[in-house]
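User: quick one, sequence for these tokens?
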């Protein structure tokens, strides 16, 4: 060992043959690397040494290296465990790379890390402590759990940026927790990393199939795990920034489009009103088609803008008592030209005595318009669309039933109310796939519920309910 120290740099290396016989006089400020020979029975003393001399990089060297021993060393904060006798080339490489190492640690000062929150789940407190120490240089907010049920309760209430999950946990496995994450509203898109000693191919494949972005084997190298997590969070932040830029641009464009579309609608309505008696049938029909297309385009633009607002929690309802019957009749007037083109008939049945409900007029009108527009687009020509207004003790219920072709009905899926989902790929119409998503957001803000029911003979029924005012219950 003395030959190695002399060969590499006797001013920067401290070698300890036996930690119990360590003499503090051996240590001075020039020492950068400390190599301790161990049989792994003296780890508590080594841990105390690591705590006392945090400015040193500490390696262990041993003739008895096993996975279990490496893991035990990692829990003590040891960065590297190497075989004895020591390979001088490894030490040379350490000093060769040391400047880059210190430079690498500087990058962990990125400001975006301070706002990140990571959930750690492991039933072994030593593992949790090691992960927390590993993540400490990154200045990340860690939230650690030993019991999976407590972790599940937290992830349902709080948004996290990354999950670090052990697999072998009593009661519920890490794989089961991953399934809960993927079905949660807040964290379904949050990346997952499995950290486990179960490093066989089957478990890795299962982890990746559950959507994990990495699989870290225990025992792990602290520097590698730091870099992995740092780069995953960095990529995530860049993606979020890109998404934010895209969404902001989209919101600006859609907002700016509203003005010329509204002007076009006003001009066409004025043209119809002032020239109704002078215009022949063909011209009248052409202007009506243009007006209908402009209103449809206005609805698309408003859906895009509302999608942006809903995801930024910027939708503020203006609730006022208003007859739902009147809102439905206004929607029927606006969709008249669309149904006329396909030879469709809309039948409205009002089965309420008093349909006054506390609603945001514009948003409920938008919801009904979206549902009627969908019914028009995806119904077969010359069919009948039915809209019924009902009530029970607690709610008003609006049901829209249409008849589509066999292929269209078969395509309906439970995710129909998610954004960018279209249930008829064959319909050649301009569509954002946001109509039903917007409907769901609006109805939920009104504390109602929206759903669909497949019926016989290729018929589909879309329904939503709205709570009755207290005085009507």
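Assistant:
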């Amino acid at each position: 060992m003395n030959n190695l120290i002399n060969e590499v740099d006797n001013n920067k290396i401290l070698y300890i043959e036996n930690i119990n016989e360590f003499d503090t006089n051996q240590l001075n400020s020039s020492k950068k690397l400390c190599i301790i020979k161990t049989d792994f029975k003296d780890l508590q003393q080594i841990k105390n040494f690591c705590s006392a001399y945090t400015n040193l990089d500490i390696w262990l060297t041993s003739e008895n290296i096993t996975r279990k021993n490496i893991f035990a060393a990692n829990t003590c904060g040891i960065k590297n465990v190497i075989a004895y006798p020591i390979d001088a080339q490894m030490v040379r490489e350490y000093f060769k790379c040391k400047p880059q190492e210190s430079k690498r640690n500087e990058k962990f000062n990125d400001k975006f890390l301070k706002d990140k929150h990571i959930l750690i789940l492991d039933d072994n407190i030593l593992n949790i402590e090691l992960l927390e120490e590993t993540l400490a240089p990154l200045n990340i907010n860690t939230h650690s759990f030993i019991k999976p049920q407590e972790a599940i309760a937290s992830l349902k209430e709080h948004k996290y940026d990354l999950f670090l999950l052990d697999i072998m946990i009593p009661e519920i496995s890490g794989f089961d927790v991953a399934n809960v994450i993927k079905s949660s509203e807040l964290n379904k898109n949050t990346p997952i990393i499995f950290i486990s000693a179960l490093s066989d191919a089957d478990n890795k494949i299962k982890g990746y199939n559950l959507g994990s972005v990495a699989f870290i084997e225990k025992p792990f190298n602290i520097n590698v795990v730091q870099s992995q997590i740092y780069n995953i969070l960095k990529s995530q932040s860049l993606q979020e920034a890109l998404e934010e830029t895209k969404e902001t641009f989209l919101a600006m464009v859609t907002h700016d489009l509203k003005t010329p579309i509204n002007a076009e609608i006003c001009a066409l309505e004025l043209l119809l009103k002032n020239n109704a008696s002078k215009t022949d049938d063909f011209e009248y029909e052409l202007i009506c088609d243009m007006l209908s297309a402009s209103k449809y385009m206005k609805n698309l633009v408003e859906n895009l803008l509302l999608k942006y607002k809903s995801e930024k929690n910027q939708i503020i309802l203006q609730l006022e008592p208003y007859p739902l019957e009147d809102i439905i009749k206004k929607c029927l007037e606006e969709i008249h030209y669309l149904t006329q083109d396909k030879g469709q008939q809309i039948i409205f049945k009002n089965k309420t005595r008093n349909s006054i409900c506390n609603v945001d007029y514009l948003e409920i009108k938008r919801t009904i318009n979206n549902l009627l527009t969908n019914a028009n687009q995806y119904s077969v020509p010359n069919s009948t669309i039915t809209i019924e207004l009902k009530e029970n003790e607690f709610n008003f219920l609006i049901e829209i039933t249409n008849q589509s072709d066999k292929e269209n009905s078969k395509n309906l899926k439970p995710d129909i109310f998610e954004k960018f989902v279209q249930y008829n790929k064959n319909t050649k119409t301009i569509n954002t796939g946001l109509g039903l998503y917007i409907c769901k957001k609006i109805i939920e803000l009104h504390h109602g519920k929206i759903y669909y029911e497949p019926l016989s003979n290729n018929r589909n029924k879309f329904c939503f309910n709205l709570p009755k005012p207290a005085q009507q219950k």
